[in-house]
Amino acid sequence: MHYQMGVLEKRFADIIWDREPVSSTELMRLTEEELNWKKSTMFTVLRRLCDKGIFQNVGGKVTSLLSREQYASVQSTQFVDETFGGSLPAFLAAFSSGRKLSESEVEELRRLIDKQ
Question: How far is residue 42 from each of residues 4, 71, 76, measured CA to CA in Å?
């Protein structure tokens, strides 16, 4: 599945992820305070993110279907697929060019590769 969020949707998602489960009433209050949104805006964006399969609103309680970490993983995979043809070595070469990796970063990458 292809998950995508704009900047404001991501800020809204962070509010949910930081507090879930959260009631829709509490979410309205939080988005009014933090994003200066009206009730209708909050429900429109929430519905959009629910339709994308990222969150659910059941009985006025909002929870995630996709954790922040899962979302980041999907976004990273999509980026590597779209930008580097799915080649992780090409991504790592581009990421590290012009930047020296520390010994601890290299060691951590080795551990991650060995775990696979």
Answer: 18, 20, 27
